[in-house]
Amino acid sequence: MFFKLLRAAMQGQTLTDTLTDETWNAVYVEAQRQSVLGLLYGVAGKMSLPFDLACQWASEAETIRGLNQLFDSEAKRLTQLFAEAGHKSVILKGQANALLYPVPTSRQPGDIDIWVEGGRASVVAMLTRMGMMDGLAPTAAEGKATASYHHVHLPANEKGVTVEVHFRPASGNYNPVTNRRLQRWLEREILSAQTTERGFCVPSVRFALVMQLAHIQRHFFSEGVGLRQLCDYYWLLQHSTAADREEVAALVGRFGLAHTAKALMWVLGKVFHLAPQLMFCKQDSSRGGWLLHEVMEGGNFGVYAPWQQHEFWRWVFEKRWRRTQLLKFDFGEMLWLDICYWMNIVRTLPTRIKYRKLSLRDIPA
Predict the structure, then answer these.
(1) Angle formed at CA 181 by CA 87 and CA 284, multiple of 5 degrees
(2) Which range, of 112-121, 155-164, 194-203, 277-286, averages the lowest pLDDT?
(3) pLDDT digits over 311-334, tens only?
(4) What pLDDT sits at residue 329?
(5) Which of 22, 109, 165, 249 has the greatest number of CB atoms lying within 10 Å of its CB?
(6) Strand partners, 90
(7) CA distance 219 to 127
(8) Number of Cα atoms under 13 Å in the Cβ half of residue 255
């Protein structure tokens, strides 16, 4: 029933099914876990909901609508701000994806991802001059910015909006060979971004198809991915052209994304009934079933996955065991993930010794 409601919401349909209060509450909880409350309300709000749940869900949907308006406004403001500093910028994922939905304000936003040209040193210097960051913390900490391989994560601003300023288009792969190919292509393709009527730039659909496939793969391997990202991909394919899909099909193998692409096509067909002609590669039911299981078990970015709930040492063991299992999904990428993991252990050793902590998660601001 949850998938039926989701499909109806995606396709703008109405349902006449009668659900028990227990079923409605279960649907609401799952929509909350998957960050698709606003999307499903488009269908659920026209059905016979329990009164208390109807009030709560309507309030959530209105909040999501308001957040989208705020995020669009902030995306426009940041675009103008960086342009005045001489830097071109492009909104990635969230607010760019929302424009593809029939009702853009129904997509539940999380943060703003914005690519800014110039490279890491230039972007960090610009953010510092603008007073948007005060140094970099070694790990995520309240009130401090952090930098990773591809972006600077800024703390929530006075409006409560969190911004990730990308100096690379994507986090990419763990395999350095396929990642180099991927990043070079993305850096070229992002230059064809177009300005929208909302006052910010969005990338081409073919850029988004490749970049967000890599994003889904990386999150799936490292922590988990949810239905919201899959809904986004459904709409990217709906807005793609045959030429877009043909080019993406020719690239996924070279970029180390083939296994995840085949799994994703199966899930999109199974859950959303995506038309076969919109798929750019064959379906893999085995890997697809694995991906769908983890999506439903872990929810948005895997935060509800059982292995994420344990104390430190049990969490470490479960995480290592999960990665060992994922070798069967994509041996090459998971092998490189493990190499990167141990390299990071060595790289961060001085910081952890300084603070006398086993994990960077425990290091204060």
Answers:
(1) 120
(2) 155-164
(3) 888 888 998 899 999 999 999 999
(4) 95
(5) 165
(6) 115
(7) 27
(8) 28
- Residue 230 reports pLDDT greater than 50: yes
Which pLDDT does position 363 carry in this prediction? 47
- Cα(128)–Cα(55) distance, integer angstroms: 44
- 51: CB partners within 8 A, 6+ apart: none
* 3-state SS track over the chain: CHHHHHHHHHHCCCCCCCCCHHHHHHHHHHHHHCCCHHHHHHHHCCCCCCHHHHHHHHHHHHHHHHHHHHHHHHHHHHHHHHHHCCCCEEEECHHHHHCCCCCHHHCCCCCEEEEECCCHHHHHHHHHHCCCCCCECCCCECCEEEECCCEEEECCCCCCCCEEEECCCCCCCCCHHHHHHHHHHHHHHHHHCEECCCCCEECCHHHHHHHHHHHHHHHHHHCCCCHHHHHHHHHHHHCCCHHHHHHHHHHCCCCCCHHHHHHHHHHHHHHHCCCHHHCCCCCCHHHHHHHHHHHHHHCHHHCCCHHHHCCHHHHHHHHHHHHHHHHHCCHHHHHHHHHHHHHHHHHCHHHHHHHCCCCHHHCCC
Long-range interactions of 324-330: CB distance < 8 A, separation 24+:
326/221, 329/221, 329/259, 329/263, 329/287, 329/290, 330/217, 330/221, 330/256, 330/259, 330/260
Q: What is the pTM of this model?
A: 0.92
Interval 240-254: pLDDT, tens: 999 999 999 999 999
pLDDT value at residue 365: 42
Using only the alpha carbons of the chain, give its radius of gyration. 21
